[in-house]
């Protein structure tokens, strides 16, 4: 750590996503922007993982058994927005994506909440902009 996680899908353990799409335990990223984000973020020089996250709106309410359960199912991170964002995108037919900077973990012995230098943040934003440009350039047809 720190590392980047490109969310491809989210476990729905919050309330907002249920206002946009029918109930279910899981929601996928409604666009293929995941591939562009994954590709572009590797240029930042940080470790990048792509996969599912657990969305909960109860910060610090996660239990060790919950974390172990989701981790055993391949869930990469806990965060607070991906499920809502993906549900909104699906309901409104808009392109969305989600990148998490993972900066702390209960099983990490090193420094916690290290999000890197300002220059790292800038490189991450630039990579996201390149990914968005690549994603939209393949979907926009000019008259």
Q: How would you describe what is shown here?
A:
There is one protein chain. The longest helix is centred in the last third of the chain and has 20 residues, at 118-137. The chain has helices spanning 33-41, 64-72, 82-92, 118-137, and strands at residues 3-13, 26-28, 48-56, 77-79, 99-102. α2 links the parallel β3 (48-56) and β4 (77-79). By secondary structure, it is an alpha/beta fold. Strands 1, 2, 3, 4 and 5 form a five-stranded mixed sheet that branches. The radius of gyration is 16 Å and the shape is flat. It has one domain: 3-Layer(aba) Sandwich (Rossmann fold). The model has no long low-confidence stretch (mean pLDDT 89). It has four helices and five strands, in the order ββαβαβαβα. It is 34% helix and 21% strand.
